[in-house]
Amino acid sequence: MNRIHPHLDEINMIGKLADLKDSHYHQSLLLSALIELLTHKGIITLEELTDKAQELNHMDNSLISP
Description:
This protein is mostly helical. It has one domain (4-64). It is built from two helices and no strands. The longest helix has 37 residues, at 4-40. 0% of the residues are buried. This is Transposase. It comes from Paenibacillus eucommiae.
């Protein structure tokens, strides 16, 4: 059995994790900017956004657990 392949697999997995972290950071940054712009322009309030997030979270939970 070749012992090199597990190490290469681990390196590949670490690279994928780093890519995911970078993608998550950029998506979070864009979402924060969008929320700030929408609230600053008076299009939506933080309360409305929080209410909608709670509503969607409740819907997700009801789909997962009957």
